[in-house]
Design a protein that fits this description.
5-stranded antiparallel sheet, 429 residues, alpha+beta, 27% strand
């Protein structure tokens, strides 16, 4: 066999091997001449066009792509051919044969002769259509999620078992006077007082310890120093790393908390005078009675009643009667100790419980209260109203078993004071 024939065969085998490699690259590989006509296309390019190699060679892109929709491909080729640029970028191509729109990441470089003149283009393109679709889908989902997260009326966040924030929605960030970007990567003790952070960590640590959902009320001060209350649900998230992660959802219940406290206050407060009502008085009195029995310390109670109050209502009407009750409550509070509890327990009836107070001291307090109104006149338009008080005093005895018994004796002493002419103090026997 002639030597030239052997060399040719060797070259042919090498060329075939090279084609096989290029066909197996999983990418679109091509070469174009200075006029933009194909001089080579690998198997994937031919499959894309649905043609044989001889049907592609010598033709430009107008035969295979709809350049009227996107001229991007032609412009990129011209930049390589005319200016010798190396192009690395996305290209969106509209394929005539199938009517498809495909997105590629293309790298195009100039081909030069031995003199350095540009004689063509070599290029490799990877189909990233599916990746772009997924990226778009993920971007849209993230945008939707961000919209929900930032507009839902809840504080949503993610934390690790090292107390580091992985995510915080806008509402959470505003609570700390920061942006979401500023919070991510910081520990809870970096964005709030340590005492508050440690309080929140109690529920966090239970989530990480049990790997179960935890919920409860949490309270701490916001960026403006206002105490706020939240109902919080914290859920563990499965993670492939050793770092534990939880997601927290906290709903601001501060207004509800205030309403609850107000309702509780109203339930235990006399609306007219602002004093504790009968229910509140009895709750406090029962506790003090039990403590007195347990500690053997004295406990006294005073029953107070406004003299001739019915005639005030009958003569002047209920608005004036209400003014009298308010005035009595206000003046009585001037001599009541901090440890004592004054309450309105009936229409014109008031009661005062005095912990750790023997009978003689309670009698002195009662006398000061009586004297406080002796000669006191409430001014109303056109005239004044004289107000006097009758008072009954009793102290718990060693054999007394209930507060009701003690209060009943004080009430009987009050009745005695009224029967003896009013405006006086009587002690129970």
């Amino acid at each position: 066999m002639p030597k030239s024939s052997s060399v040719y065969q060797q070259l042919q085998r090498e060329a075939d091997a090279l084609r096989a490699v290029l066909d197996d690259m999983g990418a679109y590989i091509f070469i174009k001449d200075a006029n933009g006509c194909y001089t080579y296309a690998n198997h994937q390019v031919l499959e894309l066009f649905g043609l044989q190699l001889e049907q592609v060679i010598g033709k430009d892109d107008t035969h295979f792509f709809d350049l009227s929709i996107s001229d991007q491909l032609r412009v990129n080729d011209l930049r390589v051919l005319q200016f010798g640029e190396v192009i690395e970028r996305e290209e969106t191509n509209f394929i005539k044969g199938t009517g498809e729109t495909r997105v590629y990441w293309s790298i195009k470089k100039p081909l030069r002769d031995s003199a350095g003149n540009i004689i063509g283009i070599c290029g490799i393109s990877s189909d990233i259509t599916e990746r772009k679709r997924l990226e778009t889908q993920l971007r849209e989902q993230k945008q939707l999620l961000d919209t929900v997260m930032n507009h839902v009326d809840a504080h949503i966040y993610m934390k690790t078992n090292h107390r580091t924030f992985l995510f915080a929605n806008r509402k959470t960030a505003e609570m700390f006077g920061m942006s979401p970007q500023e919070i991510v990567g910081k520990r809870d003790i970096d964005v709030m007082p340590t005492r508050d952070a440690d309080q929140l960590w109690k529920l966090d640590s239970e989530v990480f310890r049990t790997q179960r959902k935890q919920e409860g009320e949490e309270s701490f001060k916001d960026a403006k120093g206002k105490l706020r209350h939240y109902w919080t649900v914290k859920i563990p998230l499965k993670s492939t790393s050793e770092t534990g992660v939880l997601i927290g959802l906290s709903t601001d219940i501060t207004e509800l908390h205030i309403m609850k406290e107000e309702l509780q206050r109203q339930a235990s407060t006399d609306v007219l005078t602002g004093l504790p009502n009968r229910r509140s008085f009895y709750e406090y009195a029962q506790r003090e009675f039990s403590r007195s029995v347990r500690t053997r310390l004295p406990l006294s109670v005073i029953a107070l009643d406004i003299d001739h109050f019915k005639s005030v209502n009958d003569r002047y009407g209920h608005p004036v009667g209400d003014a009298v009750l308010i005035a009595v409550a206000k003046r009585c509070l001037e001599v009541v100790r901090e440890a004592d509890l004054l309450a309105r327990t009936g229409g014109e009836e008031f009661s005062l419980i005095l912990p750790e107070t023997p009978l003689h001291t309670a009698m002195d307090v009662a006398e000061r209260l009586r004297a406080l109104f002796d000669g006191y006149d409430l001014q109303i338009p056109g005239e004044s109203i004289s107000i006097n008080m009758s008072l009954g005093v009793a102290m718990r005895t060693s054999n007394e078993k209930s507060f009701d018994s003690l209060f009943s004796r004080a009430d009987k002493a009050l009745l005695q004071a009224k029967q003896q002419g009013r405006n006086q103090v009587c002690g129970a026997q």
